[in-house]
């Protein structure tokens, strides 16, 4: 028996008719807002505009401005020499003005120029990986077995009162040393001319107005200095002992910097410390956060042109002229020793030198390059032990010996006693400036100004 329906009711169980042409009397489908031609044109324009905007953003992005060519096969560390070599001769050289000393990583030897960082095979100098940006490099160093690159930005969007308005070193990236793969990155407040100081755990970027310290993932652990901060206007991340309660702030500039054992030491030149520089020491991790430095000691040092020479354990060696002396302090600012020095006057004019004194380390020893000679210090007490006159740099430990660059060659010394064993003749052409050294496997590297030279 079939069920019937009355007129005007819809049979919801009935199957729809198929292929039924629209008759002339059937009403047309209502227009939607996306079926009108002008609406379709508008949608197309929106899509095109979005694509153009994306393209413009991509063109100006860091990703577009970066070239990263990693090594197909990671670089293997070369083997150390089994016997001390009878001679050293040049094997290869490369331009590297952005590295203040040889960047030896345990695998690659790194050179850097312009905006380009190259990971090379230590034995041959062959480029194995490449990282480049459309920004000039400020500096390149090694820490945490990685390569730390710092790039310059122009600072044009900052107010003229900001120390970074003339440009800064704010783009920081770490790379894996064996293949050049990018690891971590951060935007920072480092200033032009920055150097990187590594204590084995933390890296501190130097500057005349601010010091920034990072851990291995580039997270900021403490900032020390006067830097405009839009989030905390007027807040000063400085040493409370150098601040006065009057209307005029005590202005300080930062000079020589050292780091060790989870502490950072800095020479401050403050307007209220008349007649003397100040040594201040603070922990590499802020007290409660990165913007609250925990100062452990701060003391005037009794003279100008102070230089932090060495930081070992909880002791800091500071060199001073007038009279010439090496003074040892604890991290609490207590003086524990003082030793006379006999150096050319220019060696101890720290204000004219860079923020980091040139040193090298060996087991139980620190080798300090003064500018005219190398002085060996006992690593524990920081006591001066012996001197190499006429040196061009602090040297490097290599195959159980100490190599010290001198005019026309490299002296080979006993690393503990300083006794001279011999000299490797080295022709440096017309270069007579300072020489920074390091080694990787059987290779010895010299940084001669803007050039890295490999010797074997």
From TrEMBL:
<dbReference type="InterPro" id="IPR011047">
    <property type="entry name" value="Quinoprotein_ADH-like_sf"/>
</dbReference>
<protein>
    <recommendedName>
        <fullName>Pyrroloquinoline-quinone binding quinoprotein</fullName>
    </recommendedName>
</protein>
<feature type="compositionally biased region" description="Basic and acidic residues">
    <location>
        <begin position="176"/>
        <end position="186"/>
    </location>
</feature>
<feature type="region of interest" description="Disordered">
    <location>
        <begin position="159"/>
        <end position="186"/>
    </location>
</feature>
<feature type="region of interest" description="Disordered">
    <location>
        <begin position="232"/>
        <end position="251"/>
    </location>
</feature>
<keyword id="KW-0472">Membrane</keyword>
<feature type="region of interest" description="Disordered">
    <location>
        <begin position="1"/>
        <end position="33"/>
    </location>
</feature>
<keyword id="KW-0812">Transmembrane</keyword>
<feature type="transmembrane region" description="Helical">
    <location>
        <begin position="40"/>
        <end position="58"/>
    </location>
</feature>
<keyword id="KW-1133">Transmembrane helix</keyword>
<feature type="compositionally biased region" description="Acidic residues">
    <location>
        <begin position="8"/>
        <end position="23"/>
    </location>
</feature>
